[in-house]
Amino acid sequence: MFFTYLRRELGNRKKQSIIIAMGMALAIALVIIVNGVSAGVKSAQSTALSSVYGVGTDITVTKTATAGGAGAGGQQFAFGSGDSASGSSSSKTKLSQSTLQLAMGTSSLKESSLATVEAVEGVKAATATLSLTNSSFSGSIGAAPSSGGTSGSGTTGKAPTTGSGTDSSSSTSTGTGPSSFSVDSFTVTGISTTDTSVGPMSATTLDSGRYLKASDDGTKNVVLDSTYATTEKKTVGDTLTIGGKKFIVVGIVSSSSSSSATASDTYIPLDTAQSLADLDGKVTDISVSADSASDVTSIQTAIEKALPSATVSTEADLASSISGSLSTVSNLVSNLGKWLSLIVLAAAFAIAVLFTVSGVSRRTREFGTLKAIGWSNGRIVRQVAGESVVNGLIGGAIGAAVGVAGIIIVNVIAPTLSTAAAASTSGPGAGGPGGASTASTTTDIALQIPLTAGIILIAAGLAVLGGLLAGAFGGWRASRLRPAEALRSVA
Amino acid sequence: MTTTIPTPLATTTGGPDAAFTLTGVTKTYRQKKRTVEALRGVDLVIPRGQLVAVQGPTGGGKSTLLQMLGALDRPTSGSVKLGAQELATASDGALARARATEIGFVFQGFNLIPTLSAAENVETAFADSSLPRDARRTRVAAALESVGLAERAEHLPSELSGGQQQRVAIARALVKEPRVLLADEPTGALDEVTRDEIMTLLEGVWRERGLTLVIVTHDSAVARRAERRLYIKAGQVSER
User: Fold this and answer.
1) pLDDT at res. B165
2) Does B76 touch chain A if contact means CB atoms closer than 8 Å?
3) Which of A14, A43, A419, B130 is least surrounded by Cβ atoms within 10 Å, i.e. has the fewest?
């Protein structure tokens, strides 16, 4: 009887049922799409971050650079009499120098901090890296003209391809002849050769050669990012000069995320990096993965307590370092999308409630009669609520179908979002020519919305909730009808 | 303000044979800012198995009296007993149970559910759904058969004439085999021929089943067919 009556009533009030179902469908579809896009954006942010920090990094520990501190200034070249300077027959002085220094905007931590972090409860794995910039200067300075003019002639310089530097070469007071020089820089990251489950290597795939291994410690072996290797035309077995030393390329890697570069141009053993940069016992970043996502906040607090001078960032903090269209979409989804879906959902629920209550009012005679022939309040409330829930479920099913279709359309179109994620956060005083961030990774990520069972559960849950809410109001209204008054009012 | 019925007959005192015993029943309503006394100290006994007609002018209290008898409302003061059960102080649930098992209603406007077929309308009378489905269907079919509508079981109310709709309403009232049948102007919306058919039907089931039948009517032709005629005016009941 329950289902027969329910089916007939919904069929008889098609217009009202369709309006309620459509309202619910619209709201649920919107919620599904907004939730889906939000999950897709989160996934894209995670991809962007993993290209910098590695997969599974929940927390990073860095030290904010201070003004005038190591790494806070630009690259400097100082030439003395013994610094690769040589005269030539054409009266030009040739100069070349290569330096390996802390990446700009970064500061170093003691390597022993890694042990401190690993000792924190809830830490699953941690690894330390040393972010450096290799800058090389090469060129020639012409001899002073014989006339001994006092004003120097111009020099031609070539801007560094990445990073920044301060050109310390200048004309002398006595003037120089025609000169030319170039400054080149690339990023070098010293990594652990043993633990690659977290950190930069965890977000890479091997294109050729091999990864660094424990036996590489102390050696001059290097792994290159594929983009850098292509630019520099390097392959496995070639050599590359880092910090004035020749390194052998043993492997080439690329980011595991589509069309994005890794955080660094080159990767060398940590101890080699420390030795070359004269930073023994120093690191710049510690990447941490937690046992459980719920532990992240407590681990962050514990590390901040153990290392008060360090900057401890969670993935959520790191997400704020992402800029570009991904950031715009993220803001749009979290602000406009969330509020729009909430407003539409509230409107749909309100429509369902109003129509249900108004339907009960129109059926006063019907419910009065049913009460007169012995129906209990509970049975009438169940009947009204049942009709509302079924109405909501129909809306939920339509909404889920529309929402899933929307997600599929977005996934087929796969709009590309560009991101720029800063590898090292910089604080006040980390200035200097070229800006504060040193390893900014620009990534184009195709937005893909995950299609999960959770989406269907959200739709079903909202549909049932909306139906129950409308049914509760309608049922409450029906239960308040006194049979005598109900029959009298229609009479 | 209590009115004592002048000719109480042998039924003025309640007892095991009384279907209804009303003592000092008063019902007042608030209508806008004034109070309306629909029943004024009514004392009345209706024996089991009696066919009673209630007449009176519009607004005299006929429908209010029927609502008291039908456990649809409680009196403002006084006592209403259905057999031995006190209805004046019963809970909503107890009143609903009494309506579900003891009392059948027939309304002037038939009050059928427009979206349900004749058989489904009759089936709504089974407020307690614990009765097996097959048993319910059998009793519904028998009830429709008893009012001569077995072949119209699947028709919607809109596909039936007024007389047929009232027959369905009577079948709905009878299917749960109540002890009391209350009819509020059951022929008020029908022509004379159909009215006589319906009255013949009601008299038939009253005789066959030994029901207590109370009919509220404006129609003297209907009232004359009753064993006992009551007249209610300004909330006071008298015998005719």
Assistant:
1) 94
2) no
3) B130
